C-alpha cells in the first residue's frame, strides 16, 4: 500500500521510497511483491545461461511490478535533468539544493532495490545516467551512484558499458574529492584505469593508498610510458614510510621490471632497500634488490651501501623471524634462493676494484664459513630439483602428457628448475667465477664439495647445464 511522504524518513521493511506519477512516498518493494523465482542470474561469473529458465522467470514478473521499476528509473532521469537544469540556470545554491535533495533521496531509495536485483530484471540503459552522476559536483550524489553501479558490476554487459563510457577515467578524476576511496578502488579492480596519464600514480603515491590499482595500471603501460609517469621517488618514499614495508611491494616490482630501474637506482632505491633489510623487513626488499642488481652500476652501489653485511647475515641465517612453523621453513627457503641469485649477480657484474675485493673477502672470513654455506645450499637444491624432475617423469601426469605428444624432457626440466635447479645453476656459475679469482677460495670450495661426495666436475656440470662456459676455466 502506498504511503505518501514528502521526504525520506529512513528505510521501511518491504517498502521503497520513490516518486511515481508525481506522487512521492513509500511504495511496496517490487522485488518482494513479485512472485518471481530466482532466475538464471546472467552474471559474469561463468554461470550457465539457461534460456528456458530466463524465459519462465520473465513471464512470472507481473506487469505492474515491471512498470513500477521502470517508473523509478524514469523518475531518476527526471530528477537528474531537473537538477542539472537548475544548476545551469543559477549559481545560487538555494535555487538548486531542493532538486539536489530530491535526487539524493531517490538514489538512496534505489540502493536496497539494486542490491537485491535479479540480473534479468535489470534495465542497463540506466547505466549512462549513473555514470554521468559520478561526475556530479556534489560528492553526496556521487557516492550512492557508485554504490548503485557496484551492485550491478557482475551483470552481463555492465563492464562493457562502463568501459565504453570511460568509467575508469571518471573514477580516477574524482579521487581527489572523494571522502572514501575504498569503493572507487574496488570498482577499478573490475574496470582498470589504462589511460597513459600520471593522475592515478600522483594520487596513490601522495596519499599512500591503492597499491593494487596502481600496480594494474603500471602493468598496462609500455616501459616508455611508465618511465614518463614515474619521474620521482614518490614510490620509494611510500615504501620507506609504510608500517610494514609491504604496502607497495607489487607496484615497485612492476616498476623495476621496466625502464624505471634506472630511476629507482638514481633515487637511492638500492640504499633504501638495503636499509629495509637491516630493519628485518626482508621479504619484498630482497626480491626488489634481486631485480635491480643487473648491471655494474647497481652492484657497485649495493656494495657501497653496506649490502654485503646484511646479505651474508641472511645466507648464514643470523636473522630472527617472527614467522612460525612451516611458514618459517617456506619463507627461509625462498629467502636463501634469492640470496644466492644476488651473490651470482655480484660475481657476474662487479668490476675489478675495491668493491669486488670486498665481495671476495666475505667468503674467506671465519674459515670460509660463508663459502661452505653456499655449497651446502646449492647441493641441497640440486637434490630437490632433480627429485622434482624424477617425480614428474614417473607420474601419471607424464603418461598423459606423453600420449598428448608433449615434450616430457622439457617439462621435467621446468619442474626441476622451479623446484631448485635454478639455485644450483646460479650457485655453480657463481662458484666458478670466484674460484678463478682466488686460490684460497678454489681450495676451500673443492674441500667443501668433496665432503659432500663430489668434485670440481659437479660444478662444471652445473655451469654446462646452465649454458655457461665459466666452469671450463677451473
From TrEMBL:
Segments for region (Disordered):
25-59
For this protein, the record's SMART domains field holds: DUF1716
Q: Where is the Beta-catenin-like protein 1 N-terminal domain?
A: 40-146
Q: Where is the composition biased (Low complexity)?
A: 47-59
Please provide one cellular component term from the Gene Ontology annotations of this protein.
Answer: spliceosomal complex
Keywords on this record? Coiled coil, Nucleus, Phosphoprotein, Repeat
Q: Give the residue spans that cross the bilayer.
A: none
Please tell me where this protein is predominantly located.
nucleus
Cellular localisation = Nucleus
**Entry's Pfam families?**
CTNNBL
Q: Tell me what this protein is called.
A: Beta-catenin-like protein 1 N-terminal domain-containing protein
Amino acid at each position: 500500500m502506498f504511503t505518501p511522504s514528502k521526504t525520506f524518513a529512513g528505510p521501511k521493511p518491504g517498502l521503497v521510497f520513490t516518486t511515481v506519477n508525481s506522487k512521492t512516498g513509500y511504495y511496496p518493494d517490487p522485488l518482494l511483491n513479485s512472485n518471481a523465482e530466482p532466475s538464471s542470474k546472467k552474471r559474469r561469473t561463468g554461470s550457465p545461461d539457461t534460456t528456458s529458465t530466463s524465459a519462465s522467470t520473465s513471464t512470472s514478473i507481473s506487469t505492474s511490478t515491471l512498470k513500477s521499476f521502470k517508473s523509478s528509473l524514469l523518475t531518476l532521469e527526471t530528477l537528474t535533468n531537473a537538477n542539472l537544469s537548475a544548476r545551469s540556470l543559477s549559481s545560487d545554491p538555494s535555487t538548486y539544493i531542493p532538486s539536489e535533495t530530491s535526487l539524493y533521496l531517490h538514489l538512496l531509495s534505489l540502493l536496497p532495490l539494486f542490491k537485491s536485483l535479479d540480473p534479468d530484471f535489470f534495465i542497463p540503459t540506466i547505466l549512462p545516467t549513473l555514470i554521468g552522476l559520478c561526475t556530479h559536483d556534489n560528492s553526496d550524489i556521487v557516492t550512492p551512484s557508485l554504490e548503485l553501479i557496484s551492485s550491478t558490476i557482475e551483470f552481463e554487459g555492465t563492464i562493457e558499458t562502463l568501459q565504453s563510457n570511460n568509467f575508469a577515467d571518471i573514477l580516477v578524476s574524482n579521487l581527489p574529492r572523494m571522502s572514501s576511496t575504498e569503493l572507487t578502488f574496488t570498482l577499478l579492480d573490475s574496470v582498470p584505469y589504462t589511460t597513459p596519464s600520471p593522475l592515478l600514480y600522483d594520487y596513490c603515491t601522495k596519499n599512500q593508498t591503492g597499491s593494487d590499482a596502481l600496480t594494474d595500471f603500471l602493468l598496462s603501460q609500455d616501459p616508455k610510458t611508465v618511465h614518463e609517469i614515474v619521474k620521482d621517488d614518490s614510490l620509494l618514499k611510500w615504501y620507506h614510510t609504510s608500517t610494514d614495508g609491504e604496502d607497495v611491494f607489487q607496484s615497485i616490482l612492476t616498476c623495476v621490471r621496466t625502464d624505471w630501474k634506472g630511476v629507482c637506482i638514481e633515487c637511492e632505491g638500492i640504499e633504501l632497500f638495503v636499509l629495509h633489510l637491516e630493519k628485518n623487513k626482508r621479504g619484498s626488499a630482497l626480491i626488489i634488490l634481486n631485480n635491480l642488481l643487473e648491471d655494474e652500476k647497481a652492484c657497485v652501489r649495493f656494495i657501497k651501501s653496506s649490502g654485503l653485511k646484511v646479505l651474508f647475515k641472511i645466507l648464514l641465517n643470523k636473522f630472527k623471524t617472527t614467522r612460525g612453523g612451516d611458514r618459517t621453513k617456506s619463507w627461509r627457503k625462498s629467502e636463501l634462493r634469492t640470496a644466492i641469485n644476488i651473490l651470482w649477480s655480484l660475481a657476474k657484474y662487479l668490476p675489478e676494484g675495491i668493491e669486488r675485493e670486498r665481495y671476495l673477502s666475505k667468503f674467506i672470513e671465519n674459515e670460509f664459513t660463508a663459502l661452505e654455506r653456499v655449497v651446502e645450499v646449492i647441493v641441497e637444491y640440486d637434490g630437490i630439483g632433480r627429485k622434482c624432475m624424477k617425480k614428474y617423469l614417473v607420474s601419471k601426469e607424464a603418461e598423459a602428457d606423453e600420449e598428448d605428444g608433449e615434450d616430457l624432457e622439457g617439462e621435467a626440466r621446468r619442474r626441476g628448475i622451479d623446484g631448485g635447479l635454478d639455485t644450483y645453476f646460479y650457485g655453480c656459475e657463481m662458484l666458478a667465477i670466484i674460484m678463478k679469482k682466488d686460490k684460497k677460495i678454489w681450495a676451500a670450495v673443492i674441500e667443501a664439495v668433496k665432503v659432500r661426495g663430489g668434485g670440481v666436475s659437479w660444478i662444471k656440470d652445473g655451469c654446462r647445464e646452465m649454458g655457461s662456459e665459466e666452469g671450463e676455466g677451473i
